[in-house]
Amino acid sequence: MPASVLSCPRILVAGLGGGSGKTIVSLGLARAYCGQGISVQTFKKGPDYIDAKWLALASNSITINLDPFLLPADVLHNLFWTKARGSDLALIEGNRGLYDGKDVVGSCSSAELAKVLRCPVVVVADCTKVTRTMAAIIMGLCAFDPEVDIRGVILNRTAGCRHQDILRQSIEKYTDVRVLGILPKLAVNPIPERHMGLISDAEFLADPIRDIASFVREHTDLEACLRIAQSAPSLTGHLSPVYPAPESGERARVGVARDAALWFYYQENLDALQHAGAELVEFSLLDDREVPEVDALYMGGGFPETLAQGLSSNAGMRQSIREHVRCGLPVYAECGGLMYLSQELQYDGSAYAMAGVFPLTTKVFKKPQGHGYICSRVQSANPFYPVGFVLTGHEFHYSHCTDADRVSSFVFSLDRGQGMKKGWDGVLVRNCLAGYTHIHALGIPVWATNFVSAARIYQHHRGVRRPCPDIRLEKSA
Predict the structure, then answer these.
(1) 4-237, superfamily in CATH?
(2) Which of 29, 354, 445, 453 is the most exposed place for a label (fewest CB within 10 A)?
(3) What are 432-464's pLDDT values in tens digits?
């Protein structure tokens, strides 16, 4: 099979660290270019749901997450080029600092991603209380790894004309990096943050991205940024289908709990389920009174704590979920889903009754209880992974199971990560598996296949009106 020419204008927006302003710049650039009739495909480096959702709104595209830890290199490369080709601009928002990775050599950093994709980099720098030193910082970034193609800098949170002049003159005198924009300090953050990053778009009545785009457009050289993106080199390589051919046979109905409480889903996870033979049925834990007629449930993460009153008040749905689990319905739940399936959720001094599938209490704290990548091994038989299977994922939760010691057997033993209890994650009741681990389906292809297989087993038993047994996979080879 001959190699294909892979070509697309592309740029990676990086920062000096978290909170530098790269999300505001990325949102502004994406919306501003869309306003010029330029088709923008947005990407988010790292396991981030919230920034990805905002980028999707800014670009009118489904934002794709690129994570070198969760995805093998060939899968990541194939995913990027499959989604980027055909667009006028691929805009990647990095995460944390440019060179920050999971270890001392910067594995999985934004810089490493830029090198893999041969992508020019624009750095967003917070210039609060710094002038000439910024030139030294930019010089250091360039010298640190000459293979990283740093082509420009956007100066953020500048104080005034004198501050801006010294910054620009210093950088232009001591470096070859072009100043592409100088953003004044905003009096109010257009998208405030809280304990898991930016606030959800669902909590805004107006569209703040319009004003962000105007702000970035006014203070940034959009044409220069686009020219940098257009200078990215063409590559050659082989592209293959992102997903295997769809499974034949009757489709299983998989319910997806999706509303303002739970909405953390990778689009690739949903697509993988469909390609494995699922028909997705969305429903709301807040508004619907019972589980729809489905053969399995997928419950992602989100902010159940901020909507705990509404979730608790919907007693019909809580009872329906509990009864379906008792009847053997396969359920896969991540983080927020675990919180909902527990007995009680404690938040801000109040306690709220949840579905009660697991006799556990989750309590939300002011500081993260788990944040970062997870590497685990499957220890207990379940419907979704064979025993012995090695699982990679990530976690980001402010809640903690206060009575996890009551769990006699966890599904995952952790080599890396916090989970529900130091070194352990994942609880199982009948065919319902829940934990703090988020997975990416393209990094774990067996997940969607096994998920739909379990749903079809339940579908068969439901069709003949027999109770569904506990579904347990054989050990991995």
Answers:
(1) P-loop containing nucleotide triphosphate hydrolases (3.40.50.300)
(2) 445
(3) 999 999 999 999 999 999 999 999 999 999 988
